[in-house]
Amino acid sequence: MLQMKLCGDLVLRQKCDDVSDITPELQKTLDEMVAMMRAQNGVGLAAPQVGVTKRFLVMMDPDTETVYKMINPRITSRSDKTVNMEEGCLSVLGPDNLPVFAYVTRPAAVVVEWTDECGQTCAAEMSGVPARIVQHETDHLDGVLFIDHLAAVRREMVMRKVRKRK
Predict the structure, then answer these.
(1) How many CA atoms, within 13 angstroms, populate the side-chain half-sphere of residue 65?
(2) What pLDDT does residue 166 have?
(3) Distance between CA 162 and CA 17 in Å, rounded?
(4) Residue of 45, 63, 22, 48 lying closest to 134 (CA atoms)
(5) pLDDT at residue 83 in the model
(6) Interior CA angle at 61 toward 109 and 53, to 5°?
(7) pLDDT for 81
(8) SS3 67
C-alpha cells in the first residue's frame, strides 16, 4: 500500500533516477497512484510523493478526464508566454489537512515526451491546466516543490500554514 509523503520528507527533495525496465510491479504502482490521486481529488502524483525515487508520474486532464501514466517524462520545449495560476500539492498540506495553494508563474505551453506503461514512446503538446500539471509533476522528479518557485516572503507564508499542521 502506497503512502503519501509530506513536505519535510527528504524523499521529496531527491532527484529521481530513470526507469530502466517496465515491470509488472511498476505497472501496479502506476495503477495505485491513479487510484490514490483520484481518492484525494488530485490531478497529478509523482513517484517521490509515494516514496519512490524513480522518474514516473500520473496525471489527469481535468477537462477530459484523460489519465496519463508517464515513465521517464521529459519536457523538450516550453513556450515563451507565461501564465500565473494557483497551484496546490497533495504533499504540501495545511492545518486542515488540505493542500495549501499559491500562485506560480510557469510557461503556458510545453511539449513533453515519455514512455507509457506499455513501453510505447509518446509525445504531446500541452497547454493550460495540463501544461501546468505536467510541469508541477516533473518538478517533483527533480526534487523541486511548487513552493520553490515562490518569492521568499510568499514561500514563508505558505510554510507557516504547513508548520501549523504539525
Answers:
(1) 2
(2) 67
(3) 28
(4) 45
(5) 97
(6) 85
(7) 98
(8) strand
Is 32 catalytic? The answer is no
Q: Which residues of 37-72 are buried (b: 16+ CB within 10 A; e: fewer)?
A: beeeebbbbbbbbbebebbbbbbbbeeeeeebbbbb
| Positions of the chain with pLDDT under 50 | none
Question: Of 65, 113, 137, 156, which residue is the catalytic one?
Answer: 137
pLDDT at 87: 97
Residue with cell 506503461: 117
CB neighbours of 31 closer than 8 A, spacing ≥ 6?
A: none
Asked if 134 and 143 touch (Cβ cutoff 8 Å), the reply is no
Supply the pLDDT for residue 1. Answer: 80
- The beta strand positions in the chain, using DSSP E, are 44-46, 56-60, 67-78, 82-87, 102-107, 109-115, 121-127
**Whole-prediction pTM:** 0.96
Q: CA–CA separation, 132 vs 100, rounded Å?
A: 16
Q: Which three cell numbers, joined as nine digits, stand for 28?
A: 501496479
**Residue 152 burial by Cβ neighbours in a 10 Å radius (0-12, 13-18, 19+):** exposed
